[in-house]
Amino acid sequence: MTALATARRDTFAALTVPNFRRYFAGQAVSMAGTWMQAVAQSWLVLELTGSATALGYVVALQTLPVLVLGPYGGVVADRIDKRRLMIGLQSMMGLLALVLGLLTVTGAVELWHVYVLAFLLGLNNCFENPARQAFVLEMVGPDVLRNAVSLNSVLVNAARAVGPAIAGIVIAAGGLGVCFLLNAASFVAVVLSLIRLDVDALRPSPPAARAPGQLREGLRYVAGEPTLFVPLLMMALVGCLAYEFQVVLPVLAQDSFGGDASVYGFMTAAMGVGAVVGGLFVAARGRTGLPALIGTSLVFGVVIAAAALAPTLWLELFALLLVGAGSVAFLSIGNSTLQLEAEPHMRGRVMALWSVAFLGSTPIGGPIAGAVSQHLGARVGLLMGAVTCVVAGLLGLLVVRRQRARDSGVGSGAQDDEVVGGQPRPVS
């Protein structure tokens, strides 16, 4: 086998699984629509209010339910059939997009409509996110899980490149409301893909029986496992203040570069292109574990700082390419590390906490990023995220070093151990 063929096989290994391939195709359509809506919704709020703080509130309302109910969403995901749960929840997401589209097209939309629909979407997400993330392992198995997670991240970010570009064209031709209507239609693809999966080929985790204290059980389990707790802590920090691009970039486009919705679309698309390249690299050659996550967090902070300081739009777009690559690498490594470390009957709860750390921290970080961007400038908002990434990486590094120090003092053969993901493993 040639080197090129081997690289192609390694990069796209998960797509050899028929169920994942079918699911991947449905998600490709839906994700493009989701990013169209994200761009259109941000610009709609700016048109209605002219306020970055209001934009932060919308993002906060969309993620507040994940913060409050996200852990319980993981309990539900561990109890019931994840595929059926996703069919129902994805259908509801399409309905919410349809309502926003009709309100916007008819000119009846008001800010409180956006607030309410954002909150309902967040309520839906707190149950859909853990089910969707844990369902990937049921489709592909552990051997190609990291590859599947990375390809899924590539898909999300390819959609980030394509969706905003389409949104810019659609907004110019038909207005903001058409973006919401097209997103509503896109959910048909993902729902049909879930319905058409070969159920016999799935590897469902044993459902957790209903019992009191399951939420507390999940929290205790994570707290006792450094390889789970530390990535979640890092994600909570980074998710809170660094992943607020939906709040900061529209302000950066408008205030720093004097741009309109199309400039914001190009900036978002640049991040998406970088994420595709970075995601493909992680899919083929990426690693899991705490050391890999720590290094990625530090690099992510550096490239966000470069984006904050870029003096021209072209340099900004180049920096955002690197930000996109760092973003997908951090998410993919953290996600796959948690799924591989978690016990099967706990996976839904663990991934719910991942969603809480990533999305649930936004009700705190979104308004902060919005206020900082409005009063101090979007560049300061980006620098705040850069510093947060570096702090998270340094905290993770401190934990790993302490773990290694403890391991080196246990047993005469401790010096022959290799620490992988924060846990010792004999060198083969």
TrEMBL record:
Give the keywords, sorted. Cell membrane, Membrane, Transmembrane, Transmembrane helix, Transport
Gene3D superfamilies in UniProt: MFS general substrate transporter like domains (1.20.1250.20)
Q: Region Disordered: start and end of each range?
A: 408-428
Subcellular localization:
Cell membrane
The reply on keyword Transmembrane helix is yes
Q: Which InterPro entries match?
A: MFS_dom (IPR020846), MFS_trans_sf (IPR036259), TM_effector (IPR010290)
Do you know which PROSITE patterns this protein is assigned to? MFS
- What is the membrane topology noted in the UniProt record heading this document? Multi-pass membrane protein
Q: Which domain of life is it from?
A: Bacteria
Q: What is its main location?
A: membrane
What CDD domains does the entry give?
MFS_MefA_like (cd06173)
Keyword Membrane (UniProt): yes
Transmembrane domains' residue ranges: 54-75, 95-115, 165-195, 228-249, 261-283, 290-311, 317-338, 350-372, 378-400
Q: Which residues form the Major facilitator superfamily (MFS) profile domain?
A: 11-404
> Could you identify this protein by its name?
MFS transporter
The organism is Rhodococcus gannanensis
